[in-house]
Design goal:
alpha/beta; globular; Nucleotidyltransferase, domain 5
C-alpha cells in the first residue's frame, strides 16, 4: 500500500498526517521537533511511503536533511503557489498537514527545489557575506557622517577604511567623540576582516570549478557576482527552458492580460531576489564597459524608460548564463547583443 505524509512544521512542534492511496487518513499526531521521535513514528509506514511533504518554512533544513539521511523520500511544498478554497470556514494544523498529503496524492503539489546539503551551506555562507557587507556600509556611512557633522571633514569610503585610532585623535577633540568614533572604527575593521575571510574561503572552494570560471567571462560579472549566480542557481537542469530560468531571476515582466487589455500585474516577488540583484548589478557594469551592450541599452531607451531598458540587459545576461551552465560553453558577444 502507498502512503503519503504531510508535515505542518512549526518552531517547537510538527503536526503529521498520514493518508493512504485512497485519500483516507490513517494516522495523525502532534510531535515535538525531535528527529528521532518523528522518524520512529514514520518507520511503521516506511516501506510504502511515497513522499514526506514539508512546507517551506524558515526552519526546514534540519528536518528535511534528517529524514533524507534516514532514507525517507522528502519533498518541499511551495506555500506561495498553493491555493486553498477561500470558502473554507475553519482550518488548523491538522487540516493543513492533511492538505499537503492530499495534494501530493493527487500529484498536484507545487514543490520547491532542495539544494544539496553542502551547496546550500556554501550558498548561506555567501548570503552571510552579503549581510556583513550591508552592516559594513551602514557603519562606514555613520563614521563618514560623524566626521562631516563634527569636524566638517569629508572623506571617501576608501579613506575611512584606512583610518587608525591615532587618526581619530586628530579629528575629535573630546573624549566622548573619540569613544563613539572609535567604536564604529573597531566594528568596521572587524567586519572588513570577516568579509575578507569569507571571500577567501569561497574562492578556495570554487576556483577550480569550470562552470564558475566560465561565468567570469560574462560581461559585468566579477568574482562576487559569479559566486552569487552559481550558488543561487544550483542545478541548471531543474529549469526546463531558458524562460523558466529568466522568470526565476525576476527578469520577466509580471503581466496579466485579458482580451488584449492589461488587468494588472501578478506576483513580481516570485523568484530569487539574490539572482535579480546580481543580474541588475552585472547589467549596470556591462553597459559602462562594453560598447555593444551600451548600444543595445540605448536602443531600448528610445522605446521605454530606464528601468525597463536595464532589466532588458539583465534578461539577456540571464539567458546567456542559462546556456553557459546548461551546455558548458563560453560567452559569445555577437550571439546575444547583435549590432
Amino acid at each position: 500500500m502507498k502512503f503519503y505524509v504531510g508535515i505542518d512544521l512549526h518552531s517547537t512542534n510538527s503536526y503529521l498526517s498520514i493518508i493512504n492511496e485512497e485519500g483516507k487518513e490513517l494516522d495523525s499526531m502532534r510531535l515535538a521537533n525531535d528527529l528521532d521521535l518523528i522518524c520512529k513514528k514514520l518507520d511503521h509506514y516506511k516501506a510504502g511511503i511515497q513522499s514526506v511533504i514539508i512546507e517551506s518554512t524558515y526552519n526546514w533544513y534540519w528536518l528535511a536533511d534528517g529524514l533524507r539521511e534516514n532514507q525517507f523520500p522528502v519533498r518541499l511544498a511551495n506555500p506561495v503557489a498553493m491555493k486553498r478554497y477561500e470558502g473554507i470556514k475553519s482550518t488548523n494544523d491538522h487540516t493543513d498537514a492533511q492538505y499537503l498529503a492530499e495534494l501530493d496524492r493527487l500529484n498536484i503539489l507545487p514543490t520547491g527545489y532542495i539544494h544539496k546539503k553542502e551547496d546550500r551551506y556554501l550558498r548561506d555562507l555567501l548570503r552571510t557575506r552579503l549581510q556583513l557587507v550591508r552592516l559594513q556600509t551602514l557603519i562606514l556611512l555613520s563614521l563618514q557622517s560623524m566626521l562631516d557633522r563634527h569636524q566638517n571633514v569629508r572623506l571617501p569610503g576608501r579613506k575611512v577604511k584606512e583610518l587608525t585610532p591615532e587618526d581619530l585623535h586628530q579629528h575629535f577633540s573630546t573624549e566622548y567623540e573619540y569613544i563613539a568614533s572609535g567604536c564604529r572604527l573597531k566594528v568596521l575593521k572587524s567586519l572588513m576582516q570577516e568579509i575578507q575571510f569569507i571571500e577567501v574561503k569561497l574562492e578556495e572552494f570554487l576556483k577550480e570549478n569550470t562552470a564558475y570560471r566560465r561565468l567570469l567571462l560574462v560581461p559585468g560579472i566579477g568574482k562576487i557576482l559569479a559566486k552569487t549566480i552559481f550558488l543561487e542557481t544550483g542545478a541548471i537542469s531543474r529549469f526546463k527552458k531558458v524562460g523558466c530560468y529568466a522568470s526565476y531571476c525576476r527578469c520577466v515582466q509580471t503581466k496579466r492580460i485579458s482580451n488584449g487589455k492589461s488587468k494588472g500585474t501578478n506576483n513580481r516577488k516570485n523568484g530569487n531576489a539574490y539572482l535579480h540583484w546580481a543580474y541588475l548589478e552585472a547589467a549596470n557594469i556591462a553597459i559602462r564597459s562594453y560598447p555593444e551592450i551600451k548600444s543595445y541599452y540605448q536602443k531600448r531607451l528610445t522605446r521605454t524608460h530606464r528601468v525597463s531598458a536595464l532589466n532588458a540587459v539583465a534578461h539577456k545576461l540571464a539567458n546567456a548564463v542559462f546556456f553557459i551552465l546548461r551546455d558548458g560553453v563560453n560567452f559569445t558577444m555577437n550571439k546575444l547583443f547583435c549590432s
